[in-house]
Design brief:
The protein has 470 residues and is of the alpha/beta class. It has 3 domains: 159 residues, Methylthiotransferase, N-terminal domain (Rossmann fold, 3-Layer(aba) Sandwich), CATH 3.40.50.12160; 234 residues, pyruvate-formate lyase- activating enzyme (Alpha-Beta Horseshoe), CATH 3.80.30.20; 56 residues, Nucleic acid-binding proteins (OB fold (Dihydrolipoamide Acetyltransferase, E2P)). The chain has 14 helices and 19 strands. It has a 6-stranded parallel β-sheet, with helices on both faces. A 5-stranded mixed barrel has the order 15-16-17-19-18. The chain has a 3-stranded parallel β-sheet with strand order 7-10-11, with helices on both faces. Helix 4 links the parallel strand 3 and strand 4. Helix 2 packs parallel to helix 6. The relative contact order is 0.08.
Length: 470
Amino acid sequence: MERSKVVISKEQIALQYEYMGKVRALLGQEERYALVRTYGCQQNEADSERLAGMLHEMGYSITEDEKKADLILVNTCAVREHAELKALSITGQFKHLKEKKKSLLIGICGCMVSQEHRKEDIKHKYPYVDFLFGTAMLYRMPEILYTRLVKQKRQFFLDDNSGNIAEGLPVYRMNEFKAWVSIMYGCNNFCSYCVVPYVRGRERSRDPEEILQEVKALAEQGYKEITLLGQNVNSYGKDLEEPMTFAQLLERICQVEGEFTVRFMTSHPKDATRELIDVMAQNPKIARAFHLPLQSGSNRVLQRMNRKYTTERYLELVDYMREKMPDIALTTDIIVAFPGESEEDFEGTLEMLRRVEYDNIYSFIYSKRKGTPAADYPDQIDPSVASDRFARMIACQQEISARKNKDYTGEVLQVLVEGYSKTDKTKLTGRTEKNRLVHFEGPEELIGQHAAVLIKRSETYALFGELAQL
Ligand code: 5AD
Ligand code: SF4
């Protein structure tokens, strides 16, 4: 794709600012509230912060309270059926809110509705949805909302999904010390189970100067953690007029002044390079944590998944990482019961978990996605076999995670404090550089700050401690 066609023009962005002004004028002085409900990955959360930014610019106050809301926007995910059903169910519930408050506006956007069949579903079965737009139309939300308001007609917009880059939109950040920065959008890999390339378009990288400016501004505002986002960050820069690698971008980001930690996700094993690992090893600003989706521990399955690497190549990368950074925390994604997965293939995945000893895994039962090649594979796995394997895999990893967590007892860890624990309001909770969850008692002022915590005991997924006396 030609770069000039990918990057949305300054004039078009200015036009959207005009629409934001027009909506603001239309709504008048009265206080209005907007709620953005997000499903799915961090990229979706980052998109929601831009949607909230535009709504804020239009005069809406951002709220979490659906009863207060005058506008509700549901940002959906399509990666598994479960995520789709959740978004549809919540949209269904908002119907009752609209019955009570006729003026309530309901919009739906994101990956799920970027599929034609879902758009049609919403159009016909959810008549109370006022507007819908796909991922490629995010930047035009002000225009779509304005048109809905003045024409009093439902608006449905799916553009072709080769995708684009829209710079200069306002961002409403939901967290005051942790920020997302998208560095690229889309995916070219077409793993045979995955819907992402169809709903988020082709890979396209943001201009490095735009990214650096955003990072500089965040560092100046005192953000403690910056997570670089992309479906496949290791492909960063290939499509730029002056190509650069992800490792080179990371190096430049690390040169930005300020005390912040850099994280990134997601990496594809076929594109992760030694150059990247070397840059990580040399830069203390980069968290010693690597998320490297394996998906399966069987080369036969990997090939059917169109992943383009073998377990041997994957292990080479892991070994190199550990050679350069012995304490690195590794996490992964696994799909269980991909079509045709035999007991032996599955054993191969368990074997990889034992060999790599991940700190944590994110595992999913394969979900059939309409339009993807794997959906037509004839050898779909019986759901009872799938759930049995899933349980065995969780048990295998639990043992590893529990053992790894136990090793931290007696150590003092630096924790970025995120807030009060959801399960125990007397405790603060936060994460270490290696993404370990830590609960401890401490004063509220520590929220958003780093704290040194002495670990006293561990469970499978969390550590418990007390403030260290330094
Ligand atoms: N079924 C189950 N899991 C999936 N993922 C992507 N597509 C599917 C699917 N069809 C998982 C992969 C990916 C993560 C984000 O979601 O493990 O890495
Ligand atoms: Fe989906 Fe594969 Fe692209 Fe990840 S790399 S978004 S799993 S197609």
